[in-house]
Design brief:
Layout (H helix, E strand, L loop, with lengths): L7 H16 L9 H20 L5 H13 L5 H19 L5 H45 L3 H14 L3 E6 L4 E4 L1 H7 L3 H5 L13 H11 L5 E9 L5 E12 L5 E10 L1 H15 L9 H12 L6 E9 L2 H8 L1 H18 L6 E6 L2 E8 L2 H15 L4 E3 L2 E3 L3 E9 L6 H17 L4 E4 L2 H22 L3 E10 L5 E12 L3 E3 L1 H11 L2 H22 L2 H4 L3 E6 L1 H4 L4 H12 L6 E6 H4 L4 H13 L2 E7 L16 E4 L14 H16 L3 E4 L5 H9 L4 E2 L10 H13 L1
Parallel strand pairs: 11-12, 14-16, 16-17, 17-18, 18-19, 19-20, 20-21
Antiparallel strand pairs: 1-2, 1-5, 3-4, 4-5, 6-8, 6-11, 7-8, 9-10, 13-14, 13-21, 14-15
Helix pairs in contact: 1-2, 1-4, 2-3, 2-5, 3-5, 4-5, 5-6, 5-10, 12-13, 16-17, 18-21
Pfam family, one: EAL
Protein name: Bifunctional diguanylate cyclase/phosphodiesterase
């Protein structure tokens, strides 16, 4: 029996148990550990909800951090253990089924928010203590006039025993008194502290308002002020504090002293900085991550007039092969090396390099000359990738494709739109062979976005009935009779109108939709062939046949033969009613396993046509081993025959192909016939059938029936 929790509530309670066991030893509470666990359970539930909400809200993390202070978890170790527990177990027990990387990123942001809420609550608690001390100090000063000895003892006890640093100075800034807590914070001696003047304690990161508030206080224009301030210790290190300075007045209300109270926030600040760094930097390479990059990009896009930005989007070529062959550890080492090289390219002001994820990196440059600098940056990146990377005793060649986008700041484009344009451009560089960079082209972006939209719409277009089929006649060159038709699928897109197969068939191949789409085309075409055979008098010229294109993806599908047989049987037609067209390029170098389905279909009586013959540079001797009965000659061989006389070289080529085909008992069909002279010359050369605009453009099935009737009646 499994000991693991079963349901969400069980996993939530398990997380709360682990959390309470980690934090309870460093918590100042009178509760038992099980009671403390029950106190943490609603906080764990709130973290779980924030982790899985559609929109991230940092308020939940801040509220949980503040609740820890209310639960007396004020020791810094309690916060550290809490964050370690959330980092290790929150996604594991409360993440559900969401994407792991997104949940980890959200967990890191929750930790940052918890630390901020903890710090805020602890500061408010400390301020309350400081206010009590200040009131006590003021009260003690007032009592001096009435009972000097008693008030002095009370004030001294409070002054020396306070956990926060306290110092008293006159209105000129001369330090008069400091308590032990303040001495420990600065790490100096009391004599050394008293030798200092308040106005000497400047720091490079002081806000401009710090010393303005100080001047207003010593002039009696304000009673107190509160700021975050850094101080230099005697050893040169930096002390960060929450500083509250109050004005002490004498019995007549005149300004007399200034009282400073300091809370040491150095460790808390370092923790926040660490959490911020981890949330904005890639754990593997140390580069800025997507979050920080988008912050910088948005800032660059919103820069003032006259400023420009330039962006390089890099994707490594063939990185998946390295991961698959050498393992992910080797791939990670390669990414680290690439990151180091890219970092060396971005050294000028306004330049940065970030890792978006996987093997994708971006480089950003800003400034008036960004249009020139981004080209130089892309060239530097390509140059640093030239040297091989040595991993596990192997020298790996690193190649990359870069998309470059540049433009003026202050435009209407969002960071997401700029990055999408760079991504599209990068893939254009990759499609051109890789190891190069390309500049963004708005028209190319628009085409790519359109292609993406079509790809997204494809899966539902078939269900919505947006596809239809047009038919182009196949004509016997000997007697001019219609022998059949080729089925050509079209897409009636709601926005783009009628789209030809060249617009969506490659996308269907890429997405795998070509298999169900191809089966639908085959079903519709075979049914149409049955209707033609029922309506057309076979005695006139023989039965009509339907030609259907078969994609390479369909050719390798395991159900090709079974689907074809089922479709023919369902339509009630014999196999000789169907001709499947396969492009020559799909069969170049085909092995017996690939040809086996075609051979089975050919043995059943289905004709197989070798489409676009002459464009694949195949060995003519291969024709003997291919189960084809028809060669469809590509139109590039017959274009010159549209005029009379034809190019004699093309005539000789066509004549040779026809002679070879006939010697192998193959029929020859010619595509793209557009003139009568072309048709006549092809007839003389011995071609069997033809199709093209000379006879008819692709159209509805009734049009083919009309042509067939005309031919049958003369």
């Amino acid at each position: 029996m499994s000991a693991e929790p079963d349901g969400p509530q069980d996993r939530l309670r398990r997380f709360a148990t682990i959390w309470s066991r980690a934090v309870f030893p460093v918590t100042s509470t009178s509760l038992t550990r099980p009671e403390f666990e029950r106190q943490l359970l609603p906080l764990a539930a709130r973290l779980s909800e924030a982790l899985r909400e559609r929109t991230f809200h940092a308020e939940a993390g801040r509220a949980v951090g503040a609740a820890l202070v209310s639960a007396h978890c004020t020791d810094p170790e309690a916060l550290s253990r809490t964050l370690d527990c959330v980092d290790a177990y929150l996604v594991l027990y409360c993440g559900g089924d969401g994407p792991h990387e997104d949940l980890r990123a959200r967990s890191a942001r929750l930790q940052h928010a918890m630390a901020a809420g903890f710090a805020q609550a602890l500061r408010e608690r400390t301020l309350a203590e400081q206010e009590a001390i200040a009131q006590a100090a003021l009260q003690a000063q007032g009592v001096v006039a009435q009972a000097l000895h008693a008030s002095e003892a009370r004030f001294r006890a409070l002054f020396e025993g306070a956990a926060i640093g306290i110092g008293i100075a006159d209105l000129n800034g001369t330090i008069l008194e400091v308590n032990d807590a303040l001495l420990r914070m600065f790490g100096g001696s009391e004599q050394g502290m008293r030798a200092r003047n308040v106005q000497e304690w400047t720091h490079a990161e002081d806000a401009p308002t710090v010393w303005r508030l100080y001047e207003e206080l010593v002039r009696g224009e304000r009673e107190h002020y509160h700021v975050e301030k850094a101080f230099y210790r005697p050893d040169g290190t930096v002390l960060w504090t929450n500083l509250t300075v109050s004005l002490l007045r004498d019995a007549d209300g005149n300004p007399q002293y200034q009282l400073a109270m300091m809370e040491d926030t150095t460790e808390r600040r370092l923790l926040n900085l660490r959490l911020r760094y981890e949330a904005t930097h890639d754990a593997l390479t140390g580069l800025p991550n997507r979050t920080l990059f988008f912050e910088r990009l948005e800032k660059a896009l919103n820069a003032g007039e006259g400023q420009r930005f330039g962006l390089c989007y890099l994707d490594l070529d063939g990185f998946k092969t390295i991961n698959d062959s050498l393992g992910h550890a080797a791939g990670d080492r390669l990414l680290v090396e690439v990151a180091d090289r890219l970092q060396s390219c971005a050294t000028a002001p306004g330049e940065m390099v970030a890792r978006l994820g996987g093997d994708e990196f971006v480089a950003l440059t800003c400034g008036p000359d960004a249009s020139r600098e981004v080209d130089e940056l892309a060239a530097r990146i390509m140059n640093v990738l030239l040297a091989p990377v040595r991993i596990e005793g192997r020298e790996l060649t690193v190649r990359g494709s870069i998309g470059v986008v540049e433009g003026p700041a202050g435009g209407e484009r969002s960071p997401a739109e700029v990055l999408r344009s760079a991504d599209i451009t990068m893939y254009r560089a990759k499609s051109a062979g890789g190891n190069r960079f390309e500049l963004a082209d708005p028209e190319a972006d628009a085409r790519a976005i359109t292609r993406h939209g079509l790809t997204t719409a494809l899966p539902t277009a078939l269900d919505r009935g947006e596809f239809f089929i047009e038919y182009q006649p196949l004509v016997n060159l000997g007697d001019g009779s219609v022998r059949g038709a080729e089925a050509l699928v079209r897409w009636l897109h709601p926005q783009h109108g009628v789209l030809g197969p060249d617009r969506f068939i490659p996308l269907a191949e890429h997405t795998g939709l070509i298999v169900p789409l191809g089966r639908w085309v085959l079903e519709q075409s075979v049914r149409q062939a049955r209707e033609w055979r029922e309506r057309y008098d076979e005695s006139a010229a023989g039965p009509l046949r339907i030609n259907v294109n078969l994609s390479p993806c369909q050719l390798t599908h395991p159900r090709l033969v079974q689907d074809t047989v089922e479709i023919l049987q369902a339509a009630g037609v014999t196999p000789d009613a169907l001709c499947l067209e396969v492009t020559e390029s799909a069969l170049i170098g085909a092995d017996d396993d690939l040809l086996k389905p075609l051979r089975r279909l050919a043995e059943m009586g289905v004709d197989i046509a070798l489409d676009d013959f002459g464009t694949g540079y195949s060995n003519l001797a291969n024709l003997r081993r291919l189960p084809v009965s028809v060669l469809k000659l590509d139109r590039s061989f017959t274009q010159s025959m549209q005029q009379f006389p034809a190019d004699p070289v093309d005539q000789k080529i066509v004549e040779g192909i026809v002679s070879l085909a006939h010697s192998l008992d193959l029929a020859v069909t010619v595509e793209g016939v557009e003139t009568g002279a072309q048709a006549e010359q092809l007839r003389i050369l011995g071609c069997d059938t033809a199709q093209g605009w000379y006879y008819a453009r692709p159209g509805p099935p009734d049009r083919l029936h009309e042509l067939a009737l005309v031919d049958a009646t003369g």
